[in-house]
Every structure is written in C-alpha cells, then in structure tokens.
Design goal:
The protein has 675 residues and is of the alpha+beta class. The protein folds into 4 domains: 3-126, Four Helix Bundle (Hemerythrin (Met), subunit A) (Up-down Bundle); 159-225, Alpha-Beta Plaits (2-Layer Sandwich), CATH 3.30.70; 337-470 and 481-516, Histidine kinase-like ATPase, C-terminal domain (Heat Shock Protein 90), CATH 3.30.565.10; 521-663, Beta Barrel (OB fold (Dihydrolipoamide Acetyltransferase, E2P)). Helices cover 42% and strands 21% of the residues. It has 22 helices and 22 strands.
Length: 675
C-alpha cells in the first residue's frame, strides 16, 4: 500500500521531535546529565529513525542511527558527555533539519553535508571508545520511559505478538502490509476492531512502534514476546494469547507498554486533539468574517423597522449578534499560539552567538504563555531574531568590560510578552552598554539626516531604524552592515504594529514591539468626520466628551490642547489629518474622543459617534497602497468602505503637519515682496 499519504504527518512530527531534542540538549548538564533528559533525546532520535526508514529516507536513517547509537551509550553511562559533544549533537540536529527540508521538497539532501555530519558522529564514537566512562557490564542503567522499556523485549531473530486495538478496516490492511515489510507474518487474526499478528523479525519493538505511529496512536499498540511453542502459522484466537507458560516467555518485559497509567493518560490526551491544516482554519475565519458583515448589514437595515411591530424579529437579531460574537471569539482562539513557540528558539541563538563573541549571557523569559495570532507569530520571528543578535553584538559587553564597570561578568537578556488592551507588547531588554546619543547624532549628520542636538531621546533612538544606519566600527558576520533594523521596523509596521526604544547609556536598552492580537476581526467605534466614516479600535478608546470653550487652550496659531480633569492633552483634528471637506472645525460643536497609544494620551476631534461594533479587517496595502494614518479598511453594514485609523501614528502625523506648516510660514515671511 502506498504510504505517501502519511509522509506529511511524518514531517510534522519529525520537526516537533527535533525542536524537543534541541531544547533538551540545551538544558542538558554535561557534567551531571539527567537520565530522563537523555532518555527523551534518545527516544526523539529513535522515532525519527523509525519513520525515516519506513519512507525510505536513507540519509536521514543513517544519520539518526549514528546519533542514536551515541545517545544510547550516553544514557547507559558508557559514554562521558562534554560540551563539545553536545555542540556536535546540536550540529547534527541542524543537519537533520536540512535533510527533512530536502525530503519535503522531494529532493535528496546534500551528499557532502550528509557525509560530513556522519563522519563527525563516527569520530565521536571512535574517540569515546578510548575514553569509556565505565565497562558496559558495570554501567548504571537509568530508568527509561515506557517506549524505551519495550526495547527490552528480545526480538533479535525471534517472534513478537503485536496486538492493535480500535482499528478501522483500512488501518488493519495498511498495518498488516507494512509489518510484512519488517519481517515474516506467522499469523494474523482479526476480532472486531482488534488485530493480532505474530511477526518474525529482527527489528526492535521501538522500531515497529515508530512505524505504526504514523498510522495509529501508540496507546493502540501492545507488543510482547511470542513463546516458542505458540508461534504457529495457523491463525490463533486472540483469547489464546495468555496460554503461553510464564516461565517460557519474557512477556512481563513488554507489559509496561500497555499497563502504566501514564501511557493511558498520554493516549487520552492525544485523542482529545487533532491536526487541522491551517488553510482550513483560515477559510473558517474568512467565513466567520463574512457572517459578521452580513449580521452588521441586517442590524443596519433593522434600524428602519418599527420596534413594536418587529419586536420578535429584533430580539432574534440581538441573539444572532451575540452568537456571532461568541462564534468569532471561539474561531479566533483556534489561531492563537503561545509566545513560547517563538521564545524557545532563542536559547540556541544566544548559546551560539555569545560563544562566538566570547560573551557570557543569561536568557530570561517572561510571559511565554501569552498568546498571539499564528499569522503574526510566524512573522515576528525574524524581527525578534535580529533584535536579539543586535543586543548580543552591540549591547552586552564582554566579561572583562562588564567587570571593569562594576557589573556581573554574565550579561542578561530578557524576552517578555504581555497583553495590553487589544494589543500584545513584546520586549527585548539587555543590561549592556546602552545607546550612545552623541554617536548616533554624529552618524546621522554624516549621512545627511535632518537632526538637531535638541531632539528628544525618543526621536534620536528612532534614527537607528533609518536604512543603512549603523554605528558599528567594524562589520562582522553577526551585524554592523546597517542592514536589518529598517527591515525590522517595516515588517512590524506591516503587521499593524510599531516599535519603541528606551535606553540608558551604560545600563542597557529595551526595544518594545506593540502588535494587535489578531489581523482578522476587531472591536471598533465608528465615528463620522464630514461625510466620511472612520473606525477607531476600541482598545485605544478611553472616553468621549463635548468640550466647553474654557477647557480649550491655544499653544500655536493652529495648535490646541484640551484640559481634562487637570491634565492637558494634545488635540488632533481628524479633518485636518485626512483633509476632509465639510467637517466640523469648532471643537465645542464636535465630539472629542480621548485615546491612549502606549504612554501617550490625546484627543481626536470628530463630528459625531456612530456606534460600536465588530469589524472585519481588510488589508489596504494588498488592494491599494499604504496610506499614512490608516492601518486597514473594513466594510460597514450599509456596504460602504470605512478606514481603520492607525491611532499610534496620529501624534507623528500631527508633528509632521505642524513642522511643514512652520516651514511654509517661515518661507512666506522671508519671501521678498515684489516691487
């Protein structure tokens, strides 16, 4: 039977196993290795080898076999680990990932790369033969997990009784055909949804389990040694299996596979979740988005109905709105993934880069359980990687430099994530040298950027995101070319977010990334400016009010602030930002919406408030182009298009407008009068 339909499942599982292997290797103490960690690393390699052999991936099978042999000796105390050996295991993990990518693309892995990594592993085996920690007979054998315990069943040249449960007809045929490739089928018995086979094979039980797990779950498999007298070619009833004499069969060795409560719990846990293609989830989210738009249209049309005559209809419409909201929240939660998916990649990055730079760095993480939309979480990996490498190269000092400054020799890098309103805030912080203001300004002037010595720190730090900007004195293979920080900022802006930097020279730098939790649906407040409708994300809105004249104060000819409970807030007129004709220009006749973006609060002048509802976010750049001050668009209940305001960009746009107006006013004053 063709097994190609299961290759994708193998690739997905192998990637997860490699990630688990890398994490365990990074946590492993070479001086005092934990037996459970070694067993888990061994099982990961063993499972990959079994699947690779099933699908005929020769290079992957050979490489994992060599790695598995070394790991098996290490977990039995026959091989003394070292940091360099763990580095080689990590290099092997990278090579295995490259091989997986090649096979997934239906190509063969690079033979030179395969030969190199296999030679590295063989050399490790040869070197360890001369420095063996203890004779194999005297080596302490750590307790292995249930999967490894089954390997104790003597299968070399013998027969195994394999019992499968909860099978469908197609799974029975597929498993029987596949087991036939692993040895000689002596008998095959079907009883209801159970299948019992006696297989004469030289394969270890773990190899059989690894192959079968790409078709069924491990909890459905029970393997025991077959007594010599019972290995008859004729079909044997399932109930006859226990008739083998206890003394003649080492059956108890296989019992841990089926009897531990942990195995049953693992089976129950696996059966409670399924793998679904992300395209199906995206299609479901799109359909829910269309449902929200349709519901919004019905609500809009219902405003024209008599509430007394149409009471039942309007009540049903209210139920529909609540159900649509609950459905939307449930569907959106499917796409949410924990930030640990991202953070777990960085221990390896920090280990490799800090070793190359001769620095000692400790990674701390906070908020790994914080969830973010899958589409965003995959796109944030590259920007975060660049920021981390930048902190390691430019931020954190060498141990000698840190000691001279009175710091600990080991630097700290903190990755954190937390929810803030309708956004997620991700921070990359280090306790290194911080940013040098004068150096940045000097470099900016050298590149012809419009800067002054009186610029606030926040604007100076933003200069490092200019294309080609770098204050590094020499270019390395890690950073210093001035390529990347501008891409980081652009990528984050494309995700609807923004970047903030705070720094104290000599004490460290914190880069703060603010992103929306999802790009699909948001709760918004619709406002009217002139004849145009705009959407304000509700997570930014604090309150709305109609000001009185005595609360307004002018600071320039066209700049105002509003006093709200003793606090003076900048006033931004949306009609001026978007050049809307026919809008209300008198703040006392309009509505002020107080919003907060990060640590900044300000007021937005609008004509009126239209309502609050869910809107489906449509990417504007995909269908048109980037518009300053606009993050996306949506379709309203009446079928018209409304723009979603980029609240974070409002202060910057206001400052740019004020600066342009000042330049024009100065030019008008200095222009010579014609005779």
């Amino acid at each position: 039977m063709d097994l190609s339909q299961f290759t994708q499942a193998f690739f997905v599982e192998a990637v997860e196993l490699l990630a688990q292997m890398e994490q365990l290797l990074l946590e492993l103490d070479a001086e005092a290795p934990d037996s459970e960690q070694l067993n888990a690393i061994f099982r990961a390699a063993h499972s990959i080898k079994g699947g690779a052999a099933t699908f005929g991936f020769v290079a992957l099978t050979d490489t994992t076999h060599l790695l598995e042999t070394l790991l098996d000796r290490a977990r039995h105390g026959q091989l003394k680990l070292s940091r360099s050996m763990i580095d080689s295991f990590l290099e092997t993990k990278d090579a295995l990932q490259e091989q997986l990518i090649a096979y997934q693309a239906e190509n063969e892995p690079d033979p030179e790369r395969v030969a190199h990594i296999c030679e590295v592993l063989r050399q490790l085996a040869l070197e360890s033969d001369g420095t063996q920690a203890a004779p194999a007979a005297a080596a302490p054998v750590p307790a292995a997990a249930p999967v490894a315990a089954a390997a104790a069943v003597p299968a070399q040249g013998g027969a195994l009784r394999i019992r499968f449960s909860r099978l469908s007809d197609s799974e029975c045929d597929l498993l029987a055909d596949e087991l036939g490739n692993l040895g000689k089928l002596l008998s095959r018995t079907r009883s209801g949804d159970q299948l019992t086979v006696v297989l004469e094979t030289s394969c270890a039980p773990d190899d059989i389990v690894a192959v079968c797990c790409f078709v069924i779950d491990e909890s459905q498999i029970d393997i025991a040694a077959q007594a010599a007298g019972d290995a008859a070619p004729a079909a044997t009833p399932v109930a006859a299996a226990p008739s083998a004499p206890a003394a003649a069969a080492p059956q108890p060795a296989a019992a841990p596979r089926a009897t531990p409560a942990s195995a049953a719990a693992a089976g129950a846990k696996d059966s409670s979740s399924i793998r679904v293609d992300v395209e199906k989830v995206d299609q479901l989210i799109n359909l829910v988005g269309e449902l929200v738009i349709t519901q919004s249209m019905l609500t809009q049309a219902a405003t024209m109905l008599d509430p007394v005559e149409c009471e039942r209809f309007l009540s049903g419409l209210g139920h529909l709105e609540r159900n649509a909201r609950d459905l939307q929240e449930s569907v959106m939660s499917i796409r949410m993934m924990p930030m640990d998916y991202v953070f777990s990649r960085f221990p390896r990055v920090i280990r490799d880069v800090s070793a190359k730079l001769g620095k000692e760095v400790r990674l701390d993480t906070f908020g790994k359980e914080t969830e973010l939309d899958k589409g965003l979480i995959e796109r944030i990996i590259d920007p975060l990687t660049h920021l981390v490498r930048n902190s390691l190269d430019h931020g954190i000092e060498t141990p000698s430099q840190r000691i001279a400054k009175g710091k600990e020799a080991e630097g700290q890098l903190l990755l954190s994530a937390q929810h803030h309103g309708g956004n997620i805030v991700i921070e990359v912080s280090d306790d290194g040298a911080g940013l040098n203001r004068q150096k940045i300004l000097a470099k900016a002037m050298q590149q012809g950027l419009p800067v002054t010595d009186t610029m606030p720190d926040d604007e100076v730090w933003q200069l490092i995101f200019a294309p080609g900007f770098s204050t590094a004195e020499q270019v390395t293979d890690i950073s210093g070319r001035g390529v990347g920080m501008d891409v980081v900022k652009r990528n984050i802006q494309e995700m609807g977010g923004h970047v903030e930097i705070s720094s104290r020279e000599g004490w460290g730098t914190t880069t703060r990334i603010v992103l929306p939790l999802t790009l699909a649906i948001l709760n918004g407040m619709s406002v009217k400016v002139g004849s145009e409708a705009y959407i304000l994300p509700l997570s930014y809105v604090i309150e709305s009010l109609q000001p009185r004249t005595e609360h307004l104060h002018s600071i320039t000819s066209d700049g105002h602030v509003i006093k709200v409970r003793g606090e003076y807030l900048p006033l931004i007129e949306l009609h001026g930002v978007f050049d809307v004709a026919g809008a209300q220009t008198d703040p006392t006749q309009g509505i002020l919406v107080i919003v907060q973006a990060g640590e900044t609060r300000f007021a937005l002048l609008v004509d009126e408030l239209l309502g609050q509802h869910q809107v489906v976010v449509k990417n504007l750049e995909t269908n048109y182009r980037k518009v300053p001050g606009i993050s996306a668009a949506t379709i309203l209940g009446d079928g018209s298009v409304a723009f979603i305001i980029d609240v974070d960009a409002m202060p910057r746009i206001q400052r740019a407008h004020a600066a342009r107006a000042a330049v024009l006013a100065h030019a008008a004053r200095t222009e010579p009068v014609a005779a």
